[in-house]
Amino acid sequence: MSIIDIIKDDLVSGNFRLTLHARQRMDQRRVTLQDIRICAKDGEIFVDGDEFNLIGLDLEDRDLTVVCAYRHGTLIVTVK
Question: InterPro entries per the record (predicted)?
Answer without folding.
Answer: DUF4258
